[in-house]
Amino acid sequence: MKATQTRLAGASAALIIAFVGAWEGLRTSAYKDVVGVSTICYGETKGVKMGDTAAKAECDAMLDASLKEHEAGMRSCLKAPENIPIKTYLAMVSLSYNIGSGAFCKSTARRRLNEGNWTGACKAATWFNRAGGRKVQGLVNRRQDEYKLCMQGAKG
């Protein structure tokens, strides 16, 4: 990925890695998430099988690569990602990481970002608080934390 295709560098990269890492938590042995999907490290699911293990360094590298992958997916459906205030942008990377780039690109949050409605996008992002068809308090809490970060950017 070219440097111009990411905003995850320096302080921004450190902030999003710490933010997402704190919410996802680190587990070096595979486990089933709240909807029964095999998961490891900081919420990674791709190719994970029960019984898998990973070192913290491997998990850190996976998180970094996955955040960049989700950022690229998010950017693919944004008209002017460079215009989004950085903290709003980082909150949306966290959302995309958690719900997947496909869901993000179909969301009202994405539509509002493309309209330049930062506050509306921040609010719409809070709607993703369900897993397996039910409201999950952990997701409610995460969305509120993302909302606070998002609004720091939205209000400039």
UniProtKB/TrEMBL annotation:
It catalyses: Hydrolysis of (1->4)-beta-linkages between N-acetylmuramic acid and N-acetyl-D-glucosamine residues in a peptidoglycan and between N-acetyl-D-glucosamine residues in chitodextrins. Keywords: Antimicrobial, Bacteriolytic enzyme, Glycosidase, Hydrolase. InterPro entries: Bacteriophage_GH24, Endolysin_T4_type, Glyco_hydro_24, Lysozyme-like_dom_sf, Lysozyme_dom_sf. Its EC number is 3.2.1.17. It comes from the Bacteria. The keyword Hydrolase applies. It holds the Pfam family Phage_lysozyme. The keyword Nucleotide-binding does not apply. Belongs to the glycosyl hydrolase 24 family. This is Lysozyme.
